[in-house]
Amino acid sequence: DPSMEIKEIKQYFFAHRNGITADALRKGGSGFRTIFGVELPPLSTLARSIGYDAELAGALWQDREVRESRLLSYWLMDPEALTRQECLELAAGVRDREDAQMLAFRVLKRRSDATGILADLDADPQLDLAAAALRQHLIRHIRTE
């Protein structure tokens, strides 16, 4: 039952909340209504304990007003299990720069067709946040062959 898992995850967010970080994110223009201020290392630890879980990732991604739910969702997605269209739909749904960066870092750059996805993102001016984030990560991380 993923709802029980989500309840446990929200308890984890609450236990690892950081008001200073949350305030800084709000002042920085975060696109999320609910921000626990959980830092990335505890999110990463939680994600590693769960592993890839498409159903849970989808439920967390749909929890679109909660920053930590959205960021955690990307860790739980198996990049190669997603279709290219699903990747573009994820990109179209990003809320802010941090959301776009996490999507690019955890999902998009890890795909064999990452440069093709970047071309698709570049072709749609509405996907500029996701395109910029993916470009940043591709330049930094993908080796040219």
How would you characterize the largest beta sheet? none
CA(first)-CA(last) distance = 44 Å
Rg (C-alpha, Å): 15 Å
Q: How helical, in percent, are the residues?
A: 55-70%
> Which shape, going by the Cα principal axes?
globular
What structural class do the secondary elements suggest?
mainly alpha
Total of DSSP H or I helical runs spanning 4+ residues: 9
The total beta strand count reads 0
Uncertain segments: none
Order of helices and strands: HHHHHHHHH
In terms of DSSP E residues, the strand content is under 5%
Overall mean pLDDT stands at 91
Description:
The mean pLDDT is 91. The chain has helices at residues 2-15, 19-27, 40-50, 54-62, 67-76, 84-92, 97-106, 114-122, 128-141. The termini are far apart. Helices cover 66% and strands 0% of the residues. The radius of gyration is 15 Å and the shape is globular.
Structure summarized in a few sentences:
The chain is mainly alpha-helical. The protein has helices spanning 2-15, 19-27, 40-50, 54-62, 67-76, 84-92, 97-106, 114-122, 128-141.
List keywords for this structure.
145 residues; mainly alpha; 9 helices
Annotate the secondary structure layout.
Blueprint: H1 2-15, H2 19-27, H3 40-50, H4 54-62, H5 67-76, H6 84-92, H7 97-106, H8 114-122, H9 128-141
